[in-house]
Design goal:
heterodimer, A: 259 residues, alpha/beta, Rossmann fold, six-stranded mixed β-sheet, four-stranded antiparallel β-sheet, 10 strands, 25% strand, B: 321 residues, mainly alpha, MetI-like fold, 11 helices, flat, binds adenosine-5'-diphosphate, binds magnesium ion
Chain lengths: 259, 321
């Protein structure tokens, strides 16, 4: 569990369009890494390349090396399906399966791996994942009701439970709070703090305070203009980025002096 | 507007429009009118059927024997069976293929192939049913004759395939296959539309959990499309139940209830029976044919109600909320 990610000269394309150029970075385990930057600079694109979700889009591909504890995720013969089973993802909009109950949602990923688990084991796993996502107390009496009946914040925590039920090495989150109210946002931020004890966490956020609150390391992406590829400008400890960044563009962005 | 200079009296408040909006009114009228019209048409059809069927329904078996086609229920039940039986097999043949093609077009085929394939399928729907009937009765029946013989020889121990196989291939099996081809396009088109509407959000949720494409289809696409698939199947079934020419041109039909699918003697459907007998009928015989039409009407309504019930059973999990 909790592995280290290393990207080496990653270029990411949508067909002919190069969306992200030459990103090299290290994401440390048992820590929260935040990606910030203006919209369109390729934060989501880069995040989705980390679990090979990027190539789901027709024509999209990645060039470069991406190591998970030294193993190249884009190496020959690597099955993207297995990569995604090890690297969980939480999306911008909560997306529990509407046709499944709360419990079925939590166990959805596990069912893919291991169709033979006993009911007792499954119940135990579901409870553990829901507790891990700070949702157990709220849903323990309605595990068999549809997940779509929950509030937005609860649905997002359900999606986190669904991801951590797989016991992934890494948890990727793409603006997980942007569709949520402030109270639900705080609940998720608290949860992220707890989860980092066990997982490598990468979170994209457009909210600078959020990056400052939850992350240990911050990466700032930027884009020279529309049609240009996004680039990693600076990556450092969150404290450093938000107090004395070494690049002018980073400072402009975090102080709000940015277009 | 003079809103800034003089305060309007409450009666002319800008929040209370003095005239209802014309567009809204027209649209409301149109939609309500159309809704009522459907009921009026349905009622008129039902009234027509009941009124003209009535003489046959109340006649004694003896009268029907001499002036019609014999005792009503023993005449119509085999027809009802033939209708449901041929349509049932048509669905069994068509639905898996239709769902497979729809899924191929929506989720597997490269875009260059998907569009022409969808177009060809839609084109199949435009072929008139007489053409299907001609093709089924002439080409398909004789082409399938060897299959009949083979099934009877090697799988004859299954009751469905027992008995002497037909020498012409004009059997309920051939009929069901023709019907299957006829209902394939409508089911395929509708399923493809629903499959394409699966929210990206849910497809990505499945893929991000490490689902293969087929697992993603099972997790996100099929559950989302369930109600749509049922509707599509029902439309196909409706077409099969009511299909006239294609059945009439393949089967001569006998007044029997039998499940064997390969024999010379086959049950025929209500609609085909009506089409075959109507030209030479008069008097009470016409009433009796119309009574058979009433039975078909009831069967179709019942099928639709069952379908609605299936769809509504798990409404809370439908994804509509
Ligand atoms: N599915 C797609 N197809 C083509 N281009 C895309 C797609 N998704 C994003 N892009 C482009 O890639 C660039 C980066 O987008 P994205 O990663 O979504 O940025 P961010 O998440 O930082 O706002 C943008 O120029 C965007 O238009
Ligand atoms: Mg984004």
């Amino acid at each position: 569990m909790s592995k280290r990610i290393e990207a080496k000269n990653l270029d990411i394309y949508y067909g002919k369009f190069k969306a992200v150029e030459d990103v090299s970075m290290v994401v440390e385990p048992r820590a929260v890494t935040a990606f910030i930057g203006p919209s369109g600079c390729g934060k989501s694109t880069f995040l989705r390349s980390l679990n090979r979700m990027h190539e789901v889009i027709p024509g999209a591909y990645v060039d470069g090396e991406l190591l998970l504890d030294g193993e190249d995720l884009y190496g020959p013969g690597v099955d993207p399906v297995n990569v995604r089973r090890q690297i969980g993802m939480v999306f911008q909009r909560p997306n529990p399966f509407p046709t499944m109950s709360i419990k079925e949602n939590v166990l959805a990923g596990l069912k893919l791996n291991n169709k033979r688990a006993s009911k007792g084991e499954l119940d135990e796993t579901a409870e553990k994942a829901l507790r891990g996502a700070n949702l157990w107390e709220e849903v323990k009496n309605r595990l068999d009701l549809p997940g779509s009946g929950l509030s937005g914040g609860q649905q997002q925590r359900l999606c986190i439970a669904r991801a951590i039920a797989m016991q992934p090495d890494v948890l990727l989150m793409d603006e997980p709070c942007s569709a949520l109210d402030p109270i639900s946002t705080l609940a998720i931020e608290d949860l992220i703090q707890e989860l980092k004890a066990n997982y490598t966490i990468v979170i994209v956020t457009h909210n600078m305070q959020q990056a400052a609150r939850v992350s240990d390391t911050t990466a700032f992406f930027n884009i020279a203009g529309t049609g240009q590829p996004g680039k990693l400008i600076e990556m450092d400890s969150t404290e450093k980025i938000f107090s004395t960044p070494s690049v002018k563009a980073t400072e402009d962005y975090i102080t709000g002096r940015f277009g | 507007m003079s809103l800034t200079t003089e305060r309007p009296a409450p009666a002319e408040s800008s929040l209370i429009p003095s005239k209802p909006r014309v567009g809204d009114k027209v649209f409301k009228g149109l939609s309500t009118g159309s809704g009522i019209l459907i009921f009026v048409i349905l009622g008129a059809v039902a009234t027509f059927l009941v009124a003209l069927a009535f003489p046959a329904l109340v006649s004694s078996p003896e009268t029907l024997e001499s002036q019609g086609f014999g005792e009503f229920w023993s005449w119509v039940i085999p027809l009802a069976f033939g209708t449901v039986w041929s349509s049932f097999w048509a669905l069994v043949f068509a639905v898996p293929v239709a769902i497979g093609i729809a899924l191929f077009i929506s989720h597997y085929a490269p875009r260059k192939l998907a569009a022409p394939l969808g177009y060809v399928i839609d084109l199949l729907a435009a072929v008139p049913s007489v053409v299907y009937g001609l093709w089924g009765g002439i080409a398909l029946a004789s082409a399938l004759q060897p299959l009949h013989a083979w099934l009877a020889t090697y799988l004859g121990w299954i009751p469905l395939f027992s008995g002497q196989p037909s020498g012409t291939g004009r059997t309920i099996l051939t009929t069901s296959l023709v019907l299957a081809v006829m209902i394939l396009p409508i089911i395929t088109s509708l399923c493809r539309e629903v499959f394409l509407q699966t929210p990206k959000l849910h497809e990505e949720a499945a893929l991000a959990l490490g689902a293969t494409r087929w697992e993603m289809v099972q997790m996100a696409v099929f559950p989302f499309a369930r109600a749509g698939i049922v509707s599509a199947v029902m439309l196909g079934l409706g077409r099969a139940l009511g299909e006239t020419m294609a059945v009439a041109m393949v089967l001569s039909g006998a007044n029997v209830i039998k499940i064997e699918m390969l024999n010379q003697q086959n049950p025929i459907s209500i609609a085909a029976r009506i089409a075959l007998d109507f030209p030479e009928s008069s008097g009470l015989a016409v009433n009796q044919l119309i009574a058979a039409g009433l039975v078909l009407f009831v069967i179709t309504l019942a099928v639709n109600m069952v379908a609605r019930w299936i769809v509504s059973r798990r409404a809370a999990f439908s994804g509509a909320n």
